[in-house]
Design brief:
The protein is mainly alpha-helical. The protein has helices at about 1-15, 20-40, 60-70, 70-80, 85-100, 105-115. It folds into two domains: about 1-70, no CATH class; about 70-115, no CATH class. The chain has six helices and no strands.
């Protein structure tokens, strides 16, 4: 959901139009994103998005959701694979940070190597 919304917004901003047209069109796009979210809201398995449709949507809100709430299930899988040992999870993520490896790529590789299935859920 968030990834798709950010993609729609990026595509919109890449179009050749005046600043005023972008501001007007952006408001319509935010309204459409909130409407689409309202249609799929009940399918989400987390409470992180429960008030998303009540927010005054803007670029900063979308970026915050993308950065802090998007794809957390992969971090949860890592935590579960470590048998819920928070200290081990933190140590592992610190090693990733020190190595300068992209955490998303690391998680993808971690999940693939362990043949862990990622549950499908709405984004």
């Amino acid at each position: 959901m968030v990834e798709e919304a950010c993609g729609r917004l990026s595509h919109f901003y890449s179009q050749d139009m005046t600043r005023e047209e972008k501001l007007r069109g952006r408001d319509e796009l935010f309204r459409s994103i909130k409407e689409d979210f309202g249609k799929t809201k009940a399918r989400f398995k987390t409470g992180h998005y429960k008030d998303f449709d009540k927010l005054e949507l803007n670029n900063a809100v979308l970026m915050a959701y993308q950065r802090y709430f998007h794809r957390l299930e992969k971090f949860d899988l890592l935590y579960q694979d470590l048998r819920g040992d928070l200290r081990s999870a933190i140590d592992l993520l610190r090693r990733v940070q020190t190595s300068k490896e992209d955490p998303s790529l690391f998680l993808e590789r971690w999940i693939t190597r362990r043949r862990i299935s990622v549950p499908s859920s709405p984004r």
